[in-house]
Each structure stands twice: as structure tokens, then as C-alpha cells.
Amino acid sequence: MPLYKTLFINKSTTVFIWKIEESFEDLAINIDLTENSQNRVNGMKSDLHRRGFMSIRHLLAIVGYVDADLYYDDFGKPHLKNGKFISITHSFIFTAIIVSDTTRVGIDIEKQRDKILRIAHKFTTTEDYDHLTNEQDLVRKLTIVWGAKESLYKIYEQEGLSFLQHIYVEDFSFKGAQTTATITFGEKISSYDISFLEFEGFTCVYALDELLN
Predict the structure, then answer these.
(1) Which range of residues forms the domain containing residue 9?
(2) Cβ atoms of 180 and 209 closer than 8 Å
């Protein structure tokens, strides 16, 4: 069972990362799906998406949950029926969940790809990264920034929230593996802790709800 990594963020928040190596049939063993989830799986054309879906159910099982404990709201955001907080992500061969007893959370995994250089202007001020002359370092940094904003979007859940206009990620060092971010939306300014890690050409970023000052 390839549980790839477990990160204990604090006493009430944990990240679980899975590397998908099994067949769909192996992942389906001992996993009971609701009728709605089964219909979702049946409608997936990609075998990797189907395997990713099932691997997330194994991550839920590690925390003591079954598929029926999870539901999605009208925004497509996942929730646990017991009121605890969860966020889910899937990128190619990796899936992950972050679960917290006490605070809203967001998580995102992305494969590091040159494609992000072409779309960076859509989600960040690219001039902030002109000092990076190494293209691979720029890809890495932009992937982290995207992952941070994606994670925050999952937390904030506000129609009209813009990655470019409303979410700002403070600059950071790769070595530090942490930063902060703010969301300025309407008259409200919210601050967040951001952490990240890199592995096998992928980036995982997770965010915790507003900073406690």
C-alpha cells in the first residue's frame, strides 16, 4: 500500500500523500462506494483518474473514514459529515488529502511543467520573479505560487475570487519551504500560512486558515 508520505502539521492537522502504483482493480478491493461515487467512477474515461479517485478513498480509510463520510457542496468543495475539515488533490500519479480537526485547510499537488511559464501572467505578477535567471527555478517557483493560490481558493470558496487580483503570495526561498499569503477581497484582508515540498518532479502546497496573531 503505497502511502508515500505523512506530514504531521500540528496536533490537529495532517497531510497524507499517495503514489498511485496499483491497478484500479487492486485499489477497489475493500472500498465501498456510495451510488453517487460509483456513478462518478463509471463516468471517468481516464484510467489514471479512476485510480486516483480510489486511492483517495484509501487515504480516507487511513484516517478512519469511508466514502460515505465525504460529501461535496454546490461549489464542488469536499466536506466531512462530522464537521472536520478536509481538502483533496490529484495530479498524475500522486493524490493527497489534508485533514484538520480545528481549521479550514487547502492542498494542491502539481507536476512541474514548462507550460506554467506561458500562463503565469494569468495568476501572478511575473515581474516579481525577473531575478530568477534559471528557467527550472522559475518553473519551480511559479508552480509553488500556483499551488498556494489554488490551496487558498479551496479554503476561501468565494465566487468572483481572482488568483491575479485578490491573492498575493509573499516571496520565499526554496530552502525555507514556507511563506505567507493574503487574500484581499472586498473590504476584508485575510492572512494564511503556506508550506510546500517538492518530490519526483512534483510540488505539493498546503495552506491553513487565517494566521493567529
Answers:
(1) 3-102
(2) no
d(CA 138, CA 127): 12
Taking residue 32's Cβ as centre, other Cβ atoms within 10 Å add up to 11
User: Is 165 among the domain residues?
Assistant: yes
| Rg of the chain taking only CA atoms, in angstroms | 17
- Phi, psi dihedrals of residue 156, rounded to the nearest 5°: -75, -40
Q: Name the 3-class secondary structure at 31.
A: coil
Question: For 103-143, how does the pLDDT look when each residue is reduced to its tens digit (9 = 90+)?
Answer: 999 999 999 999 999 999 999 998 888 888 899 999 999 99
Distance, in Å, from the CA atom of 193 to the CA atom of 151, rounded to the nearest integer, reads: 11
Q: In what order do the strands lie in the sheet with 3-10?
A: 3-10, 13-19, 94-100, 85-91
Domain stop point among 102, 125, 146:
102
Q: Which of 102, 127, 162 is the last residue of a domain?
A: 102
Using the 8-state DSSP alphabet, how is residue 76 labeled? S
Residue 38 in this model has a pLDDT that exceeds 90? yes
pLDDT, position 1: 60
Residues 52 and 121 in one domain: no
Residue 18: how many CB atoms within 10 A of its CB?
A: 26
Residue 76 has pLDDT above 90, yes or no: no
Average pLDDT, the chain: 95
| Residue 210 pLDDT level (bands cut at 50, 70, 90) | low
CATH number at residue 27: 3.90.470.20
